[in-house]
Amino acid sequence: MPDRILVINPNSTDAVTCAINDAMEPLRIAGGPAIDCKTLREGPPGVESQSDADAVITPLHRAIRDAEDETAAFVIACFSDPGLFSAREATAKPVLGIAECGILTALTLGHRFGVISILAGSVPRHLRYYAAMGVMQRLAGDLPIGLGVTELSDARNTSARLTDIGRRLRDRHGADVLVMGCAGMARYRIDLAEALDIPVVEPTQAAVAMAIGRIRLGW
After folding, report:
1. What is the pLDDT of residue 56?
2. What is the pTM of this model?
3. Strand 177-180 with 34-39, pairing
4. Residue 156: how many CB atoms within 10 A of its CB?
5. Strands 34-39 and 95-97
6. Residue 30 class from Cβ within 10 Å (0-12 exposed, 13-18 middle, 19+ buried)?
7. H-helix or E-strand containing 73?
8. How far apart are CA 94 and CA 2, in angstroms?
9. Alpha-carbon distances, residue 34 vs 9, 135, 166 (angstroms)
10. What are the structural domains, with CATH classification, of the chain?
11. CA 165 to CA 171: how far, in whole Å?
12. Which of 36, 142, 146, 217 is most deeply buried (CB count within 10 A of its CB)?
């Protein structure tokens, strides 16, 4: 029986996969499942539109099928959760999307959650998903930092933008917990939580934590 979680980054930017891999360290525990991170080479540099999200579904499913025999659970590490529901039809193994898991985790940490997105064009796509999840009444707001996926490696600029938008969600929109709306933001979570003094959920960590529970409990 495999004891591995495979985290798939659906974009082709290795820096994002490296950031995800670093964020997994607290979850790599003695006796726990291995956590491997994979870049989807067929993906765009960043999943920044509905077209991008739709385009990665087929290669993403192929990657899941190819790794099924040696994998106990899969995590789709993109906040659009591309192909999540059809992927669950393609394998009997658990498949978790980081947006769904990040939001569900946030709902246990606060009453109203805010989401920090990358680009303004991402927000309508996210709002459709929140509506489908039935969580709009708990949403404080979803605001973009105005940076693309490949720009998130600029630590000084990204940190400043995250803090500014996070403060706006907290002070003007009433968010008492934040969700980072892109897997590439992982390295900034601790500093952002300390700067704003409210919980900040990194959604890939949330999804992998749930995957560990699924494996251990046989769900």
Report:
1. 92
2. 0.94
3. unpaired
4. 7
5. unpaired
6. exposed
7. strand 73-76
8. 13
9. 17, 32, 33
10. 4-98+204-217 (3.40.50.12500), 100-202 (3.40.50.12500)
11. 10
12. 142
Give per-residue burial for 182-207: e unless 16+ CB within 10 Å, then b.
bbbbbbbbeebbeebebbbbbbbbbb
For the chain, which ranges sit under pLDDT 50?
none
Q: How many CA atoms lie within 13 A of 30 on its CB side?
A: 0
Placement of tokens 């739709």 in the chain: 54
What the block records as the tokens of 183 is 């897997």
Q: Which residues contact 202 (CB under 8 A, 6 or more apart)?
A: 23, 102, 180, 185, 186, 189
Specify the pLDDT at position 90.
Answer: 87
CB 217 within 8 A of CB 39: no
